[in-house]
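Quarterly update from the structural biology core.
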Amino acid sequence: MSEGSDTAAGFRIWLASFHDEASARAAWQALSRANADVLGALMPTIVRVDDGGGGSLYRVQAGPFASAIEAQDVCAALGVRSTACVAIVR
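Predicted structure, tokenized:
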């Protein structure tokens, strides 16, 4: 399910969650187009998780980042554009 491989780095950004994988992939395409100057060099990762109610959520994440500060800086840049973002340890 993962498109990117960030085995060397420990940080990603989490951008959104959806109930289906297609919506998550479409969201990455839209976000990366709208924010190409910020997200252009990042690799997307779609992570499937149990939603606790018998279904799944698909989290849109991107990275890799070598440090939490780098991930937080990208989130800050996206926040100025009213785009939700959370820096996470992968």
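Strands lie at 11-18, 43-50, 56-65, 86-89.
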